Amino acid sequence: MNAGLKYALAFALAAGAGHVGTIVAAPFAIMHVVTGKMSQDRTAINRFVFGERVTQNSRNVVRPSPDLAYSSCVYDLSEGPLLVTAPPSPDNGYVSLSVFDARTDNTAVFDSSQFPQGIRFVLAREGQAVAGGDPVVRTSHDTGVILDRRLAPTAERFAAVDKARRMNSCAPL
Amino acid sequence: MAKHWKLALTIVAGLAVGAGSAAWSMKRGGLSGVGAGGWYGNSVTGSVDADPWTRARVALTGLLALNKSQAIYFTTNVDAAGARLREDCRYRVAGAALPARWWSVTVYADDDYLPLNDDDALSFDATEVKPDAAGQWTALVAPQRAGEGAWASSRKAGDYSLTLRLYQPAKSAQDDYASIPMPSVTRIDCGGAA
């Protein structure tokens, strides 16, 4: 193999590896940064943090919806499963709890149409023992985030759902 | 020795070019998918079935997006004529009843965040439009309000995009994005022209 061909081949292989490596690693890296912000530099793990009303100054997550009230629980399942609960909004407005893993995949979602009396489930790593009759969401990663979305397109609606979401819980079993 | 350095530099340059092309793909490559009139949406957004490129693009430009059983997202950065959406233009967004429990249209600046204006009109939703007897509705996206109808402000948005969210979409919409009657985005005028 002549030298020029060798260098061209090395360049092409490295470029391919750099491209694929970045594409695969980026979701993990972005999720790590975002969950760090959401959990106040990882001081708020396995408990809900309640976001302010979304405004033009909201910069934690790209493309936030100004019509929703967001709450988040950055989780770590290394010590065991979590029990997650969220009461309904007082006006029976839209509520959903969605589970995202460290790779950013939306592994499960529960909403107020399915559970009008409130949402309740257990989040566990694959292989962790879980007792009881609650629905169990299994994930292949220890870390990620649970996002509570509530319809709140006005300041008045936001104030109403804010009271309800303060009863959310995300804690070890 | 010099040969080893040359090879190492070649590999480093290749890695950098590969990483750069990945970053470009994530930010500018766009999401392939189904849509009409410039709107595009991908049925595997938020799904464990997403391919690595889709997952990376969503992580950068739409992190924490729900899967289609809960929400369907469409985005456009062009009007019906294919021209880039611009802050200094006014657009009429018009459509029919959408197959979802609730929907909204939101303005996002080119950095994928909300535009830095304090108009408290960053979106309009299903509760704000006034459908006629046939179910048709219209709204305005412009830097300033005009009249009483539904309005989303594009002030300080630069070259921007619109995202349509369909929450709790009908099963038929989840199964076939092409069946969703996408709103049209028609330019009215630019630069304050009457």
Automatic annotation (TrEMBL), chain A:
This is DUF1254 domain-containing protein. Residues 45-167 form the DUF1254 domain. It comes from the Bacteria. Pfam families: DUF1254. It comes from Novosphingobium arvoryzae.
From TrEMBL, chain B:
Transmembrane segments: none annotated. Coiled coil: none annotated. Pfam families: DUF1214. Residues 70-170 form the DUF1214 domain. It comes from the Bacteria. This is DUF1214 domain-containing protein. It comes from Novosphingobium arvoryzae.
